[in-house]
Design brief:
single chain; alpha/beta; Rossmann fold; two-stranded antiparallel ribbon; 12 helices
Length: 421
């Protein structure tokens, strides 16, 4: 009798433990689950969380979309890759920041373009775990969308050139067969390039200076602009020196040979051009294992008398000249090797042509109907009267012309991404 009584008591205690465990896990808040994280990838001339006087690229003055998602129970991190670097270099940097280790740009790639093979080291990865069971959803702005596509391609297909060049010592990112990305959402991305790049080498640095000076004016002002912006060009021997102010650093970068051909083919200005984007789209595949979403923006309206596009009243002042120039530019009969630019390219968000934002040329694309599908670009529509920086909260937190708030978009879209299988 004693043995049977002890056995019954044991079973009762076991049942109580199991019931308590179930109740405990059911009562856990949403944020406590081992959710797939969201990774933010910034665009051309973007910056990291500790740069630009603490003004967040994702959120602007007083805003922080990464923190917003984390507080709502959606784990999120952001990478800080080369603001003027090629998509290859940026994708590799993003990989090592997320996974940890010293950046390996690839032996074949480094030799081809004449820069160092290895870059910065990241001892503490942004993600404690990243594999085929805990995949990431990427939200990328502007060039970040191109960068993310290269990252997905390298993870899944690797690089034959790098495998041939290094054999058994090939870096993990170039080996392929890593389905670690669940979804990609691109915001205002020049999938097919932007006409802003026509003659934009000098504009690269002028725009950087304007943006940094503008933000400095909003954040208590600054006389030195030191230690606020890093071009992250270590592979070219252009690491920012301690105490070097932005103007001296910018001058040193401009005087280097990196902007000269063929080196310039390994920089953002080439990848962002219509011709460079066409080349990129020729080898970067759309993965059948990934959900793709795209959101477009436009801050110009058509002048029926001239057929040109003019900036709307809410367009950021610093971008007005650019929006006007892009809105009147066409090149229907280009020189050999250049892409034809017709009037459909005139609508823009002051940095990127709206026609270029929907999907890479030749890709399967459709309007999103609420039923996510893999391997197809799903168009989330166009936010009209929104310029290029509005969607990330930089130039305006809330657009009075259409009533939408970027914060709502990020929270609602994060919820959608969490539901993806």
């Amino acid at each position: 009798m004693k043995k049977r009584s002890a056995s019954v008591n044991f079973r009762r205690r076991s049942a109580a433990v199991i019931l308590f465990s179930l109740l405990f896990f059911i009562s856990l808040p949403a944020g406590a689950k081992d959710q797939d994280p969201i990774v933010f990838i910034h665009g051309f001339l973007g910056w990291g969380r500790t740069e630009m006087f603490g003004v967040k690229y994702w959120g602007g003055v007083g805003g922080d979309y990464e923190a917003l998602l984390n507080a709502a129970g959606f784990p999120a991190v952001s990478v800080a890759v080369g603001p003027v670097s090629s998509n290859w270099d940026r994708a590799v940097e993003a990989y090592y920041q997320l996974k940890g280790g010293c950046v390996d740009y690839g032996a074949a790639h480094a030799q081809k373009y004449g820069h160092e093979r290895f870059g910065r080291c990241y001892e503490k990865p942004l993600l404690s775990r990243w594999d085929d069971r805990r995949r990431i959803s990427i939200i990328a702005h502007s060039q970040g969308g191109q960068t993310a596509r290269v990252l997905i391609h390298l993870l899944e297909y690797g690089s034959e050139e790098e495998r041939a060049a290094t054999g058994g010592k090939t870096a993990e990112i170039f080996k392929g067969d890593r389905r670690w990305v669940k979804s990609l959402t691109t915001l205002s991305t020049p999938h097919n390039g932007t006409t802003l790049t026509r003659g934009a080498y000098a504009a690269t640095f002028q725009m950087a200076e304007q943006i940094i000076t503008g933000i400095a004016g909003l954040v208590q002002g600054s006389d030195t602009l030191s230690d606020v912006y890093d071009f992250k060009l270590d592979q070219w021997g252009l690491r920012k020196r301690p105490g070097e102010n932005f103007f001296a650093y910018k001058k040193r970068v401009r005087q280097s040979p990196i902007l000269k051909s063929p080196t310039a083919r390994d920089l953002a200005v080439w990848d962002l051009s219509p011709e460079g984007a066409r080349e990129l789209n020729g080898w970067v595949k759309t993965s059948p294992n990934v959900y793709y979403f795209s959101l477009s923006t436009a801050s110009t309206e058509r002048d029926e008398s001239s057929g040109d596009e003019h900036p709307v009243v809410t367009n950021a002042l610093i971008f007005l000249p650019v929006a006007g120039r892009m809105g009147s530019y066409s090149d229907p009969q280009p020189l050999p090797g250049r892409m034809a630019i017709d009037d459909a390219w005139k609508k823009n968000d002051s940095i990127v042509n709206t026609i270029s934002m929907r999907a890479p040329s030749g890709s399967a694309v459709r309007f999103f109907d609420g039923q996510p599908r893999k391997g197809i670009w799903q168009d989330l529509g166009t936010w009209t009267t929104w310029d290029h920086m509005d969607i990330i909260g930089q130039t305006r937190m809330w657009n009075l012309l259409d009533g939408r708030n970027p914060k709502d978009f990020y929270l609602e879209h994060a919820a959608l991404l969490e539901r993806l299988p």
